[in-house]
């Protein structure tokens, strides 16, 4: 459903796992399918929000501005120019914390005499932390993908990354997190008790999130 409160609001959403190049044919990636971010984007569009989706996965949705990128640095560049123009940022993408220090110009050849091959990694920017530090009136939503100590780790991310809300998911659960159609989210806000939602489809998670955002806008 569309509401007058959300009509004309602008949101930028990231989705999918970044791909950090090793050479022209290889990359370091992760298991993110982009489903969670895409669900957020579609639900927003259905509620009358103007959506820009920055993603590593193939996606074409009528009426949505979709920007395809591969690496964390490319995602960061796109966000830096779009963020000042939006009302909401949602970082659903799984951003690689590290990338190869050097990207080989040519395909790396196997050396038959060596059993080991070493790739030196260097830190990627923390996109959410960097971008959210520049916020003026934007509402900033991060995810926390955890395999242990969900609440404690998510709480740390809420504080250190300047997010207004963290949506925490336990990615060790087989029916939540990466790749699957369902998710189980705990919503964290500053100075409020964490709110755990039941297991539901990613589309339902997205719908619940936008309903929650609507209550904040109306308040
Ligand atoms: O794509 P799906 O297959 O549907 O899976 C959904 C999901 C599991 C990827 C999604 O629900 C999710 O949890 N996304 C965040 C994954 C992640 O990178 O979590 P994190 O806890 O490592 O990072 C915390 C937050 O900081 C995230 O919002 C992330 O986008 C952001 N981040 C992380 C590292 C980095 N260098 N820069 C960032 O901005």
UniProtKB/TrEMBL annotation:
Its cofactor is Mg(2+); FMN. CTP binds at residues 97, 107, 125-128, 143, 157, 161. It comes from the Bacteria. One of its GO terms (biological process) is coenzyme A biosynthetic process. It catalyses: (R)-4'-phosphopantothenate + L-cysteine + CTP = N-[(R)-4-phosphopantothenoyl]-L-cysteine + CMP + diphosphate + H(+); N-[(R)-4-phosphopantothenoyl]-L-cysteine + H(+) = (R)-4'-phosphopantetheine + CO2. In the N-terminal section; belongs to the HFCD (homo-oligomeric flavin containing Cys decarboxylase) superfamily. In the C-terminal section; belongs to the PPC synthetase family. This is Coenzyme A biosynthesis bifunctional protein CoaBC. It comes from Companilactobacillus crustorum. The lineage of its organism: Bacteria, Bacillati, Bacillota, Bacilli, Lactobacillales. The chain holds residues 181 to 399 of 399 of the full protein.
């Amino acid at each position: 459903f569309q509401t007058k409160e959300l009509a004309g609001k602008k949101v930028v959403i990231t989705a999918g796992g970044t791909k950090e190049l090793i050479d022209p044919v290889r990359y370091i990636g992760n298991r993110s399918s982009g489903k969670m971010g895409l669900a957020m984007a579609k639900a927003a569009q259905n509620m009358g929000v103007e959506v820009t989706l920055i993603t590593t996965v193939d996606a074409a949705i009528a009426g949505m501005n979709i920007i395809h990128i591969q690496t964390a640095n490319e995602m960061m560049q796109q966000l830096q120019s779009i963020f000042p123009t939006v009302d909401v940022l949602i970082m659903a993408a799984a951003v690689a914390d590290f990338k190869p220090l050097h990207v080989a110009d040519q395909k790396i050849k196997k050396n038959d005499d060596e059993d080991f091959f070493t790739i030196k990694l260097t830190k990627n920017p923390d996109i959410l932390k960097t971008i959210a530090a520049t916020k003026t009136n934007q509402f900033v939503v991060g995810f926390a993908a955890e395999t242990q100590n969900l609440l404690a780790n998510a709480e740390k991310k809420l504080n250190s990354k300047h997010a207004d809300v963290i949506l925490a998911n336990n990615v060790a659960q087989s029916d939540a997190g990466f790749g699957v159609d369902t998710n189980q989210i705990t919503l964290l806000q500053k100075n409020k008790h964490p709110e755990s939602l039941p297991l539901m489809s990613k589309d339902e998670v997205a719908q619940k999130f936008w309903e929650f955002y609507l209550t904040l806008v109306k308040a």
